Amino acid sequence: MTIIISVQYRLKPGKRAELLSFVSDNVLNTRKEAGNLAYSHYPCLENEDDMFVFEMWEDIESVKRHINAPHYVEFSKKRRPILQSYESRTYDAHLRSERHTAPQPE
Predict the structure, then answer these.
(1) I need a labelling partner for 55 at 20 to 30 A (CA). Which of 2, 23, 69, 103 fits?
(2) What is the mean pLDDT of residues 43-65?
(3) CA 59 to CA 75: how far, in whole Å?
(4) pTM (2 d.p.)
(5) How far is the C-alpha of 101 from the C-alpha of 45, rounded, in Å?
């Protein structure tokens, strides 16, 4: 089952440059992980403190391996002190592979 994860987090004021100084290593290493289909962090255009993360994984086991990957553990340790808030949602994306167009209203 394909998994999609969306994350929204807010940095402490003035910490975007610090985050951007080390987030790329995590993104590049995560994209190399077995089971990763997509992974990126996006800075918000409306303010300097908000970030959005989009992740797509082949299965939940790949997500579990990612959370314990040394590069992600290191990234989390660096990010934790500059975080103000963090929210994550996980979705079952099986419809992604069943349809090539959006479902039509009945």
Answers:
(1) 103
(2) 97
(3) 22
(4) 0.84
(5) 29
* Distances from the Cα of 88 to the Cα of 6, 10, 91, angstroms: 6, 12, 10
Complete domains list, the chain, with CATH = 3-96 (3.30.70.100)
How crowded is residue 51: how many other Cβ atoms within 10 Å of its Cβ?
A: 20
The structure tokens listed for 6 are: 């969306």
What is the torsion angle, in degrees rounded to the nearest 10, for the CA atoms of residue 87, residue 14, residue 67 and residue 31? 110
pLDDT, one tens digit per residue, over 69-82 is 999 999 999 999 99
Nearest-angstrom CA–CA distance, 69 and 39: 14
- Residue 35: left if φ>0, alpha if ψ -120 to 50, beta else—which one? left
Angstrom distances, CA of residue 86 to CA of 34, 93, 103? 25, 22, 31
